[in-house]
Amino acid sequence: MLGFHGCYARIDLTKGESQRIPIPDEVLARTLGGVGLGSWLLHREAPFGVDPMAPEAPLIFSFSPLVGTGLTTSAKFAVVARSPLTGGLCDALASSHFAIAGKRMGVDALVFVGACEEPSDWVKGRLQASRSWGRTARQAAFALRGEGEVAAIGVAGENGVRYATISADGRHAGRGGLGAVMGSKRLKAIVVAGECETKVADPDEVARLARSLRERAAGDSTAKYRELGTVGNLLSFDRLGALPTRNFQQSQFESAEALSGERLRKTRRHRRASCASCTIGCEHRFGYQAGDGAAAEVRVEYESVFALGPLCGIGDPDIVLAASRRCDELGLDTISAGATLAFAMECRERGLLAEGPRFDEPEALLGWLDAIATRSGLGDQLAEGSKRLAELVGGDAIDFAPQVKGLELPGYEPRSLQTMALGFAVGTRGADHNRSGAYEADFSDEVDRLHADDRSVRHAVDSEDRAALIDSLVLCKFVRGAFEDFYGECAELLRAVTGAHFDATSLRETAKRIVDLRKAYNIREGWRPESDRLPARFLEEPIVDGPAAGARLPAERLEGLIRGYNLARGWSPEGRLSGEATTRLFESLGLDAPAETGALEARSPEASAEQRCAESMTEWTR
Amino acid sequence: MGRAKAWLPWFGRSLVEHVVDQLLPVVDEVIVVTSESLDLPALPARVVRDREPERGPLAGLRDGLAETSAEHVFVTSTDAPFLTSDFVARMLAVGRPCAPVAEGHVQVLCAVYPGSAGKDAARLLDAGVSRPLRLLESLDFEAIEWSGGEAGSRGSVEAPPWRGFNTPEAYLEGVRSVDPDASAEVELLGRAALRVEQTLRRTPVGTLGEVLAVWPASLGLIEDGRVARAHLASLGGRDLVRDLRVPVGPGERVSILDALAGG
Fold first, then answer.
1. What is the ipTM score, two decimals?
2. Which of A241, B19, B86, B129 is a plausible cystine mate for A547, CB 3.0–4.6 Å?
3. What is the pTM of this model?
4. Structural domain for B112, as ranges
5. A252, A416, A448, A561: best to mutate for the B interface, most B CBs within 10 A
């Protein structure tokens, strides 16, 4: 099938061997790329019950058929692995030239298994001792400039922080601790480059569709991202009683104005930038004064500002922006870092921790981030994430640890955004605003965001399906509003690129299949119905402040929503795939259904795929 | 109305808070009956759920009365901003079931019932009766002829204590009858905020369409008779609406958000 290379590279870092393994066309058609293909590869490559940071655990970089086509926002890749934070499937996306160069290596995915003997860089097939161990990802990329495009980890990944990121071009595959998986392989950086073009079926049609999407993406549907960026959420969330503050003890923040995008735009040095192949330009960079008085600059997103600001009770923009930049440098997921610190702050406030960060010590924030990344002192426990820290603290700490399945909540108060609460509960990755856009319903006049009902179920399922497709194509979600007929237009794009038949109906099925595939992995690795649960705080305490005061999300309401969601997905009321559905799913993807052996065999490769692989074969040796 | 009546603003608090505040000084306990789908603000009252809201106020009376052991209970609806403590005290002082009657209409939701009448209400509902008047009639109630207005907490008003609102216009008229200068404020957030110097303006109360007129049309806040697709209006931080006919109450803040909030 055009648009793909029809194979992936399996790179054994222990043995120093690389192998190209064909991927059948029907698997590519049914998983597409990005998180879909990555999930398939994880099923295939990950031994049952593997420790996420064991050498045997695979780390997958998955590309997609649209990469390199000129479609706006298509220069994205997915990283997939078993998460050291949640124990479940984790897929995270990043946008960068790495996606384009990676696909030019002549493969649809890179799968790293094993571990290097010493800190190393993987440079286009060769392993070499890393000169950047102990330095930032940016420094690692700089050291390897000229070799190709680089994805690298920071110090947090080297030290196995369970929410360490992988970064490329300064953008992060941020959630779930994939940087720790890379660090456990003693792999500092991955450099990709190549000459393998992917042919598309109808270049003129692709160009026409790309032009049309680009024009629409320049309009109103993306104006918010262009003009203000996601940090524009902060003040709006505050006004709606949806801005988590001081570890979700409050829903409004007294310093929200100072941290708002509106204020930053009017008072700070500002410039915009774009990811590779993007015409939207959502990246807003703001100036701030660093601790030493020097002028500095940082890319600002809502989630970073929320997590390091209101969630930790910090209202000084210079501190919050500096902390955001420090997380970038250290390779820390800002959401999990901020949320784990905020949780520790509340533990300290309650006397459950004798030492540790405090809400009223904002100037200490940067030091705590350093301690986490280097696992120094209490930082060693903070590096484990809020769930493990709560287990360590004991008592009722788990009731107010802001996590689902171990993944810290992003900046959406679930009691005042109850469709999103459902999305958080059932998310495969855990509490997740990227794999479920259920908040869109809450920010509309279509549901009662303070009292979810059956309407929320439909929105949660639909948004998760759309995310599964867009994350497999892979396109940026910020372009989602530019589609008039999302599934129909995606099918049009795929037809023009691959020459194969896709239509809206088949893509809806594909989206559901990908959701099923991810769920099946978690079931395989120990998911239980009780995994789909929000912390007790959200189910037992009402919001106490602001316009959403009194809003409650009783456990029975959430359970009803989850049951409705599971049934709408065709699962059992508890959320299990039936044996028949599992068999059908795995057979359709050439995977052996989960069994004692765990052996997963791909179907026989097609000659054309094998041939294409051979043409692009490079000798990859240590 | 386009909004939950209980949450409509009434001079610094919600209507339900205002009504509860009127009751508290003259009763032993306040019980608020509400539907399963409506959360209320924190109230100095016991909140019970209406098991069958689709069956009307008699079912709510049944569920509320079932929760009390008081001899007599004053019953009012939530949207009764002109209810006063004095009026409630006078009604309870009658010492038996009673209700005001105005122009021949018995005000069944501004009346006193025996605390034990819950089971009578249940019997009527079982018999297919849904009108509270039948309950009062079965209790041999005393009709008290309504003879005019009384002094309210914000000055002399003519409105009877059971006066409620079924339309935005009626609500706004009620607001203006208390304070002709009642005002709200409209705040621009997100992209719209980047286009103006001052992002907050005060305006007289009115429908959403009327209060949005405080901002120039060039901002494009209104489109095709609704809040423009690029935006969304938050009323008091609770209701998210596009319908320009909904009322904006006294002291309320309307925030104009980017429609693509989140992400």
1. 0.88
2. A241
3. 0.92
4. 5-169
5. A448
